[in-house]
Specification:
Number of strands: 7
Helix content: 25-40%
Distance between the termini: 48 Å
Largest sheet: 7 strands, antiparallel
Order of helices and strands: HHEEHEEEHEE
Low-confidence stretches: 16-25
Length: 157
C-alpha cells in the first residue's frame, strides 16, 4: 500500500513538472508584450549589453532588481525564456528566445527587434517553407512580422 502511495506521489510530481516545462506557444499578443519588455530594457540600458534570463542577468550587478523581477514576470507570461538588448551608434538589437524547455529537438525559435538592416540576408517570406526547402546543414531564417522592425526567426544551431 505504501509503495503505491509513494509511486502515485512521484508520478504526480513528475507529470506536474513536465506539464510546467512543456514548450508553450507564445500568446497572440506576444509582439505587444515584447514591445513592453523592450521599453523596460531600454530604460535600464546604460551602454552595456543586457540579458535577462530566468535565473541570472548580465551584467549581474548594477541593474534595478525590481525592474528585473518585472521583466522576468512579463517574459514568463509571454512564453519567452530570455530577452537581451545591445545597441551601437547605428542600430539596436533585441532578441527574445521562445521557451522550448527540455525539448532539444525543436529548432531555436526567437523574435528579434532590429532597427537597422542586419538581418537582410536571412529574411524570407515564410520561415516554415524556407526550412522545408533548405538543403544546408546549418540554417537561419527570419520572416517579417506585422510590427515594424520585428522578426520571427528559427535556426538549427
Amino acid at each position: 500500500m505504501r509503495k503505491r502511495v509513494i509511486g502515485g506521489v512521484v508520478l504526480l510530481l513528475v507529470s506536474s513538472l513536465l506539464a510546467y516545462l512543456w514548450p508553450r506557444q507564445p500568446p497572440d499578443d506576444v509582439l505587444v508584450r515584447m514591445q513592453e519588455i523592450l521599453s523596460e530594457l531600454e530604460e535600464m540600458y546604460d551602454g552595456r549589453y543586457i540579458r535577462v534570463m530566468p535565473f541570472f542577468t548580465k551584467p549581474n550587478n548594477g541593474l534595478n532588481g525590481e525592474k528585473v523581477k518585472l521583466i522576468r514576470r512579463k517574459l514568463r507570461e509571454a512564453g519567452i525564456n530570455s530577452a537581451s538588448l545591445s545597441c551601437s551608434e547605428r542600430r539596436c538589437l533585441s532578441i527574445y528566445s521562445i521557451n522550448r524547455s527540455f525539448n532539444i529537438f525543436l529548432n531555436y525559435r526567437y523574435y528579434v527587434y532590429e532597427s537597422g538592416d542586419l538581418l537582410e540576408e536571412v529574411i524570407v517570406d515564410n520561415v516554415e517553407k524556407a526550412i522545408e526547402e533548405n538543403t544546408k546543414v546549418h540554417y537561419a531564417f527570419c520572416e517579417r512580422t506585422e510590427a515594424e522592425h520585428w522578426f520571427y526567426c528559427e535556426n538549427n544551431h
